[in-house]
Amino acid sequence: MKTGLLPVWRDRDTLQFGVDPRRAVAVAGLGQTAAVLALLDGSRDRDAVVAAAREYGVPAAAAERVLAVLASAGVLDDFPARTHGSLPMPLRARLAPEMATAALAYEEGDGGARTLARRRGAYVRVHGAGRTGACVASFLAASGVGHVSCTDPSPAEPADLAPAGLVLADLGSPREEGAARAVSRAAPEVLTVDDGTAPDLVILTGLTLPGLTSQLIRDRVPHLALRTGEAIGVVGPLVRPGRSACLHCVDLRKADADPLWPKVLAQATFAPPGPQACDTVLAAMTATLAAAQALAFLDRPDSVPVTADGTLELVLPDWQWRRRTWRPHPACDCGASAAGGSPDASGAGCASGFGGASGSGASGWSGSRGMGDGAGYGAPAPRLPRPGGRRRRYPGRGAGRIRAHRRAGPGAQHHGPASALAASGTRRQRSGGFPSLAGDGSAPPARRCRCTSPLMRWRWRTGRARVAVPCSGTW
Ligand SMILES: [Zn+2]
After folding, report:
1. Which of 134, 388, 406, 475 has the most CB atoms within 10 Å of its CB?
2. What is the value of pTM for the model shown?
């Protein structure tokens, strides 16, 4: 069973996996077959489980049925024993949270093994090993990335020290060496030498010389920018060369809004280094989010990260990261504009342009995409017409037929406010509601629900287990 979901009994026949309603799933009608659950400790394959269940008096057909229901509920991990056997025990224990998280976040049935394999085979090079760069490197190494190097020969100064990066002993030595030691402290098995291998991803911290970014574009190396300063943290854009906006595209967009932007940028790029307005917490938050975006890119190569054609930005003292859209610029020769950019990454409800009155509308604060509420700064985003023209009573319902079988936990009230329902996550309901051994697994015919209160749309599903689930209007 998935290690990240705690099994708890709802009643003598219903076992719930997980506590938080956004992850929890319950299996009803277990009865005597509950003995099979004790056998699912990862030490047996399917046939061995069925054989052992028979010794407990559970018929083979019933044990098979239990396994099928648990698998359909998404609470089983199934992978060859050699996947774990290839990792030394201490490393396996240290990476267990990474695998458990991947198994839940990506809904993978292999216990996160595929994600871990991708990370261990990946190489990330970080340019800049100051307060944020060394932290990003150690976060990635601790997350299972197999090869992480840093490039920054400048001597480490007191302002470079950070809890997850450089330490006092690194003062005066090249930052890249201190960052390599930070990586080794987090994950001793990780390679830290830049051996000339083409990286899978480059992370650029701070302002970068144009020559480096042009070289990365020419070599088709994906790169993620991050910068901190002036009490602002910015993560992105993540440049997929030729497919999404590059850093030069962003500067051209800024120049559209402020014709003197190139002059400002040149002075900022070549200004002598000095203390930055980036406190420890802002540096850690920015490094963490950058590491998360890097892992999202490495873990799911077929998906488009939220920082493609966009940036995530935090302006203190605000607490909320907001996404800003940067479309490829037609005057840039990176080729992304001709390719159309990343349609999935632009977000909905793009706000009006950035900065001055000449804003082109091609850049701006955009919808939430899971980060923030979409309110944005500056001019408000135009309201988009709703499908069917009807205003939803609470947004959680529209987000997806509401996860009928997801609930439980002390914070989830049957008659909770609409916001509680709206906050109940983004995972979509699997068909058929609660997986149950009492039925044949087929979806019941749709009937109009008789509940009337707009804030208490719950229904009871009858059968061997009676469980309240959020109402989707029909059942
Ligand atoms: Zn470009």
Report:
1. 134
2. 0.72
